[in-house]
Amino acid sequence: MDLSLQVFEDDEFEGLKMLQNLTLSRNRLTTLGSSLQKLFNLEILRVDSNRLRTLGKEQIPANLQNLYLAGNPFHCDCQMLFFLNHLNSTDNPVVDVPVCTLQTTPLRSRLHRTVHLGVAVSAPTTPRGTSCR
């Protein structure tokens, strides 16, 4: 589905309550918002290869069985840490291992270093050295 958008409005999926499989891969999504929470029957969500930088547990439907996240420039921050810990404590399996992007040079540079989020989750601090509590 080529949306050519970056965000969803809260009522974007109104009337699609029976939807089970949603593929939003290879778009320019920067956020998912809370509109997916209303898709109670959604089992498969593909949001790989977008521009998502972080996710929150309020953005993922409770009954989701497969979640595809690879190919997004995720930031290793506290919100992402809490999100991954939430996923690890539920039956919402992430199918592919997402990678977080850490800037290792000044902001104007495009050079990045990537880290598997599984490694980032076990770290007690964020890349900037601040503690997540």
TrEMBL record:
Name assigned to this protein: Uncharacterized protein
GO cellular component: plasma membrane
Organism of origin: Caerostris extrusa
Pfam families, per the entry: LRR_8
UniProt KW keywords: Leucine-rich repeat, Repeat, Signal
SUPFAM superfamilies membership: L domain-like
InterPro entries: Leu-rich_rpt (IPR001611), LRR_dom_sf (IPR032675), LRR_TM_domain-containing (IPR050541)
Keyword field contains DNA damage: no
Gene3D superfamilies: Ribonuclease Inhibitor
UniProt lineage: Eukaryota, Metazoa, Ecdysozoa, Arthropoda, Chelicerata
